[in-house]
Design goal:
Elements lengths: L8 H11 L6 E3 L8 E6 L7 E4 L2 H9 L7 H14 L11 E5 L3 H9 L6 E5 L10 E5 L5 E7 L3 H20 L9 E7 L2 E6 L18 H15 L21
Antiparallel strand pairs: 1-4, 2-3, 2-4, 3-5, 5-6, 6-7, 7-9, 8-9
Helix pairs in contact: 2-3, 5-6
């Protein structure tokens, strides 16, 4: 339970889905003596839009990632916010914090899937819904986004996460440059539900332009192949390492 209110209900939902109900783990907005993770709530707990590491480089990277897929206004706003978050101290601008006390099993699973690489987590705060999954960024302390995790929390989102992992694995197997999709890393488990872990999309990815002409035939063929891979039976059902995996934009 959070220590104080009021709080944006969307932030409450995100914290509960990702970290709630885990034995030995506490979520608090009061500074603890020892914490395993510390987050800045942007812009505030009352109207939260993002939860980023309270560490300059990592927090800045989380906000800037995927900028090429956003509109001009969104990019400007995020760039300014990222500059503030990356400037120490930030307490005079973004005052609200959330701390995690105790071992974080989601971060541990992600770090294991990444070969033991140390990461911090970040997420965009969005309204909840029965089909909506929190998308969590994995960011290195040096400020590099290395993975995204889509976190299932019920039977419907669990089925969707497994289907997405299967589809991404199929796209990766096509070995074509015609279609780009996040490369899967792993399908892991968190709180009894699957989490798909992927590499970030290439930095060269640009925002979709609806006025652009239709894609060339090789792109259409690759898309058809990806749909076929998604429909194929016997997709991966879990596991932490080799085959497989998936915050803000299309990512967080």
């Amino acid at each position: 339970m959070m220590a104080r209110a009021p709080q944006d209900p969307n932030l409450t939902w995100l914290l509960d889905v990702v970290w709630g109900g885990i034995d030995g783990l506490q979520i608090t907005d009061s500074p603890p003596e020892h914490a395993s993770a510390s987050f800045v709530v942007v812009p505030s707990r009352r109207r939260a839009r993002a939860l980023v590491p309270d560490a300059g480089r990592a927090g800045r990277a989380a906000l800037l990632a995927g900028g090429a897929t956003r509109g001009r206004r969104s990019k400007r706003e995020r760039a300014l916010t990222a500059w503030v978050v990356g400037t120490r101290p930030v307490s005079g601008v973004f005052r609200d914090r959330v701390w995690i006390v105790g071992d974080d099993p989601l971060r541990a699973s992600i770090e294991s899937a990444l070969g033991g690489q140390r990461v911090m987590l970040a997420a965009t705060v969005r309204p909840p819904g029965p089909f909506r999954k929190p998308v969590v960024q994995a960011v290195t302390p040096e400020g590099r986004v290395v993975a995204y995790a889509k976190v299932a929390w019920n039977a419907v989102t669990g089925a969707n996460v497994v289907a997405e992992h299967t589809a991404l694995t199929g796209v990766a197997a096509l070995e074509t440059d015609a279609v780009k999709a996040p490369r899967p890393i792993a399908l892991v488990e968190h709180k009894g539900f699957p989490v798909v872990l992927t590499h970030p999309m290439p930095a060269s990815l640009r925002r979709y332009d609806a006025s652009a002409p239709p894609p060339p035939p090789d792109v259409s063929r690759a898309r058809a192949g990806a749909r076929g891979a998604r429909a194929a039976p016997g997709g991966p059902s879990g596991g932490g390492g080799g085959g497989g995996g998936g915050a803000p934009g299309a990512h967080p």
